[in-house]
Amino acid sequence: MRDPSVTDIHKHLVLVGHGMVGQRFLEALTERAPGAWRITVLAEEARPAYDRVHLTSWFSGTTADELSMWPEGFAQSHGIDLRLGDPAVRIDRAARTVTSESGAEFPYDALVLATGSYPFVPPVPGHDAQGCFVYRTIEDLEAIRSWADTARTGTVVGGGLLGLEAAGALRALGLDTHVVEFAPRLMALQVDDGGGAALRGKIEELGVTVHTAAGTQAIEAGADGRVASMALSNGEVLATDLVVFSAGVRPRDQLARDCGLPVGERGGIVVDTACRTADPRIQAIGECALAADGRVYGLVAPGYAMAEAAAADLAGLEGSFTGADTSTKLKLLGVDVASFGDAHGTTEGSLEVLYSNSREGVYKKLVVGADGSLLGGVLVGDAEAYDMLRPLATSAAALTVPPEQLVLPASIGTAPGPIALPDEAVVCSCHNVTKGAIRAAVTDGGCADVPAVKKCTRAGTGCGSCVKALGTIVADELAAAGVQVARGLCEHFAHTRAELFEIVRVKGITTFSRLIDEHGTGEGCDVCKPAVGSILASLNAELGNSVHILDGEQAALQDTNDHFLANLQRNGSYSVVPRVPGGEITPEGLIAIGEIARDYGLYTKITGGQRIDMFGAAVDQLPHIWERLVAAGFESGHAYGKALRTVKSCVGETWCRYGVQDSVALAIELELRYRGLRAPHKLKSAVSGCARECAEAQSKDFGVIATSAGWNLYVGGNGGMTPRHADLLVSDVDRETLMRTIDRFLMFYIRTADRLERTAPWIERMEGGLDHLRAVVVDDSLGICAELDELMARHVETYEDEWRATLQDPDRLRRFVSFVNAPGTPDPTVRFVPERDQVRPAREDEDGNTLRPALVAGPRLEVRTR
Amino acid sequence: MCRYDDLAPGRGVAALVEGQQVAVFRDRSGAVYAVGNRDPFSGAQVISRGIVGSRAGAPVVASPMYKQAFDLRSGRCLDEECAPDGSPAALPVWPVLLTPAEPARAGDVAPPNGAPHERETGRS
Ligand code: SRM
Ligand SMILES: Cc1cc2nc3c(=O)[nH]c(=O)nc-3n(C[C@H](O)[C@H](O)[C@H](O)COP(=O)(O)OP(=O)(O)OC[C@H]3O[C@@H](n4cnc5c(N)ncnc54)[C@H](O)[C@@H]3O)c2cc1C
Ligand code: SF4
Ligand code: FES
């Protein structure tokens, strides 16, 4: 333990380096010893700490802000002076000061070095030509991306973890990609020869050319100074326009060397278990440190453990770092790779159990101790078992099943039964959280789901690789505690939506009351009522019921959006979206919408679904607005319903020089065919006129792309929160076959999906997946196609425009008032203010009677009476 | 305030009572409840447009905005203790008095709908 006098109030601590580990140190210290230190941070980079581990996701759209690890208000609440872009250049140990590049001098009582490492660039001739990069900071990635704009071929030097990640990024940037690795195999550090071979096969399949046992000898630049080619030690010459060096990292220990602190033979500031250097006032943590076990760690989890140890020490508590688990699991270029524990079988007397299948590109090796305990392993191509195996290996518990069962694919041999992890097994290595701690969070901490457990234990909030295991443990623990993880819709029905659908269909049930009386309990709720409302709406035509969703008891089941046939907005007003099939609209149509919006002072916006949304209508105004829309030939766009939304189109063959079919005509036909179709969730579609895919059909529940021979149908696409590319269901089919296949696909979905389950998760969950779906809707393997066809025919026959029908019926219209006892009085709390020449809802602080903005709409309106 | 028949079972209406907005509901059994119309989570006067149901036997309405459930008898929110502004998440409740119906007058059922009315945005 440190001499407590050092932690006296208002002592000054200087942290050099604000990377991942530095930030973690600040969090740990301010938590353990709040207010005890005045803290100055010297940071070389221009931005506060960010998530370097997920750096590559920057290429796929994660912004620098999203990567940031610097909580808002953190500096203020802990009085931290963070100096960005001003690196430390000198330490004077005798005077106890640090000097920064700008010349400022900072006295310290304690100094913590967290300077990380720098990418090693082999000193080959030409290594500094234009177009050579390293891969460590956001700025590096920015430079690579802009250079890639004018490059065709990219070469990564180094076939380790980072090199392969960089290669994946270059592929995604559209470059012909090569990886050059000096060792005879890829990821030499983590995997063995067999695993390396499986990995290589998989990666070459993806179009990356791999050169192993090849050193970089020279880089040649063209006359313009830009990289042109690379000569390899095996005599090969690669033409390349861009080079990324990823040949390992070296600890940034120069500051320590310069002030005489001992460093390791191969670099790294020597520290003890409390992360103290030879000078007790100075500590070093993260990638710049040579830990007490004689290793320099290049992973974030050991760095975090060092940060915790150093912070504990400074807070006068016990803290030590004696070494860490370097297990890793990654998805590199879409290939699962994992290595854990003693992956290379260096323990004396250890034995190997191997499964290798080069046809499938799967390789699994387990290292087993003489006593039968699991010591480590390598998994390539299928790392499913990692979550279970790694904690088993680190806990050194004896295996309860024969090890070969753990590597065989589930289809061969018996699948291993549930393997009990001991409580001390570390499940989350990023934050060093054991299974016991997770269980305690559920049983004693009252955490009822994974997000709660994450919040309370931090498990799963680092690299994220343990989240699946976390989910299983939480679910098991809840089940053991007798918390029913019910399958049913809600407390009122023990059935799933698909089961209720069959009950309603087979028994011909037409009301919610009968369904809940016969098959449920209680009064229902906002979960089961709309779900049943949707089932009834899908089956009404079939059951000979009124098809209008506001009729009879059905009206009471609808969510507020369906109840008012409009979308509720934040201030209690509604939005109105007329259908614009295929996105095609006449000038007259545009003018009509424009006039109506102007007359009612509605905010207008073009939506992401190729139509126009008008916002800010009061309940009382809805029928009046719709009267005018219907008169102008518009219909409900069902923006409020779990129903077909839009069928987007591209302009297609008619105008576009590349189009091969009339995509607009087909989109309109599809939209008209399926309009009003109620489903478990909303349905979206699109039709593109050629493979350039301007309508983004592959991100839709059902999407169609024209081919010269007909149409390709894709299903199960999704944008939104969990995007999914649609799967090709049938190709080159004619119009009739296309329609029939979509009819069946949709009806099968409506019959069997869960409540609020889009087609994407529905297909993901389907046993047998796409093949099963194709068998059902194309080959009629279940013999239900005639029924599905019939259901869709009924829908098409009985469709009516909900708004037109509503306007014709005074009973349905009665609900459209703000106040039952003061019809005609608008809700005075719904207020707007002007913004960019339109209106927007007033905010709470603007919501006063004093606020009377200027004229925003046309002249005084005529008041119609019906 | 309104006629019993104006209340659809399982649904609500809003009424303006001395400048206050009141949400009035009738459940499937015929019981009538009156609570405040302002949703404490969004600040919007929308509670009357929620779905009525039950939770563990208690009659509830789910706010249509963010779906928190409120006990119709006590007004208490069953999902969260506090509104975003820190105040206790609860709706005011009022006792309901059912009186014999007056003879219906022409026009007192179907309200005139849809007249574009003046907004407080100051359109003049
Ligand atoms: C208006 C619009 C945004 C815009 O200004 O462009 C919009 C607005 C809303 N979207 Fe959206 N989405 C709109 C296009 C999209 C798109 C783009 C598209 O359709 O091409 C997507 C991604 C594509 C997809 O769905 O796969 C999209 C993905 C979502 C999601 C996430 C769905 C998912 O599967 O993850 C939700 C949430 C939900 O449905 O549960 C959502 C929900 C909503 C809701 C209903 C949220 C709410 O409850 O208030 C918004 C109400 C609209 C309103 O009040 O009128 N919106 N939304 C777009 C209306 C399109 C239309 O004409 O109907
Ligand atoms: C692309 C990529 C992917 C990775 N993936 C993984 C992974 O999947 N799993 C994993 O465990 N690890 C991964 N890592 C490694 C991980 O990012 C590092 O282990 C971790 O960032 C180390 O943290 P650190 O704070 O020690 O160093 P860094 O995060 O590098 O921070 C050091 C900081 O100190 C600054 N600095 C240096 N010298 C000075 C000075 N004199 N004055 C002021 N500031 C200075 C540097 O500019 C830098 O900002 C990955 C790294 C990269 C680049
Ligand atoms: S998808 Fe093809 S046909 Fe349609 S607009 Fe784009 S390029 Fe033209
Ligand atoms: S192991 Fe990285 S978050 Fe849990």
Key features of this structure:
heterodimer; A: 866 residues; alpha/beta; FAD/NAD(P)-binding domain; Enolase-like, domain 1; 5-stranded parallel β-sheet; 26 helices; 30% helix; 20% strand; B: 124 residues; mainly beta; 4-stranded antiparallel β-sheet; 3-stranded antiparallel β-sheet; disordered C terminus; binds flavin-adenine dinucleotide; binds iron/sulfur cluster; binds FE2/S2 (inorganic) cluster
Give me a quick take on this structure.
The complex is a heterodimer of chains A (866) and B (124). By secondary structure, chain A is of the alpha/beta class.
Account of the protein in words:
The complex is a heterodimer of chains A (866) and B (124). In chain A, 47% of the residues are buried. Chain A is of the alpha/beta class and 866 residues long. Among the domains of chain A are: 179 residues, FAD/NAD(P)-binding domain; 116 residues, FAD/NAD(P)-binding domain (3-Layer(bba) Sandwich), CATH 3.50.50; 90 residues, FAD/NAD-linked reductase, C-terminal dimerisation domain (Enolase-like, domain 1); 68 residues, Arc Repressor Mutant, subunit A, CATH 1.10.10; 62 residues, no CATH class. Chain A is globular and about 90 Å long. Chain A is built from 26 helices and 38 strands. In chain A, a hairpin with a 5-residue loop joins strand 30 and strand 31. The N terminus and C terminus of chain A are likely disordered. Chain B is mostly beta strands. Helices cover 0% and strands 27% of the residues of chain B. In chain B, a hairpin with a 2-residue loop joins strand 1 and strand 2. Bound molecules: siroheme, flavin-adenine dinucleotide, iron/sulfur cluster and FE2/S2 (inorganic) cluster (FES). Flavin-adenine dinucleotide binds next to helix 1, helix 5 and helix 8 of chain A. Iron/sulfur cluster binds next to loops of chain A.
